[in-house]
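Researcher: I've been going back and forth with a colleague about how EF-hand domain-containing protein might be arranged in three dimensions. Neither of us has a model we trust, so I'd like an independent prediction. The organism is Methanothermobacter defluvii, in case that matters for your notes. Sequence below.
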Amino acid sequence: MKSCFFGWSDESSHNRGRFRAIGMISHPCEMKNEIEKYINNVIDGSVPDERELKWKDVNKFTFKAYKGIIDYFLREANKEQIRLDVLRWDIEDSRHSILGRDDNKNLQFMYYKLFRNVICRWGGGHWIFFPDENGFIDWEELTRYLKKLECKVPLKEELNIEPIKGVSSKDNVLIQVADLFTGMSIFSKKNFQDYQDYMEKKNARKKEEDEMSNFERRCEILNYFNKECKAKKKGVSLESKGGLETRNPKTTNINFWPYKPQVEEDKAPRR
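Model: Here is an independent structure prediction for EF-hand domain-containing protein. You can compare it with whatever you and your colleague have in mind.
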């Protein structure tokens, strides 16, 4: 019987700021109820209302929920159950710093790169993708490109992809989880020096969680994630790379992947 997989994805800052990213949570289809139940229990035990989790706005309730979600991904989940993949790019590199860059088409290209990478990590199979809904991506065209993947790379199983359609992040908790790690990837790169400054000075401040700003809470979450990755030997670097980056994605189920121009001719699409 062919393996079946779900992929839940979201983007962050795709058309603003220097650093931009998309991320995906992927897992075997039969794990859906178990994973969602665990994440929903974490949220229900931390957040007093039914608000949607958003990395851009971390309060004292979502702060606790994010720590619980990180615990799940680093302590409970393994490579056979679930993957986290985040692709980040820099619009000031040689690929993107061009006149007339088409950010929407470039976003679609990056989605293709991410989806392709995740499919190859799992080895093919039957795929159902749930990206956060937006009006920037031609999902039909992206589906056609992905269906050609089997002809280009060796896969363990025959590839089948259901038509991709955007869904609401509010109704799908694993898209909210993708938003957490995608936003964290950008934050780690964009604010790395400010993060280091905060970590050096925070002991002198000794603030209670209730007194922390949104920025300070995000620094604390990044620091917690970084420490747990090291403790669990997930192969994710922060300090040495000046932002989250996975050294060898073949050995771990957590892949923070900075896109780098492949050749001189590798340029973003133009309008």
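Researcher: What would you highlight for our discussion?
Model: I'd start with this: The mean pLDDT is 91. After that, consider the following. The longest helix spans residues 103-122.
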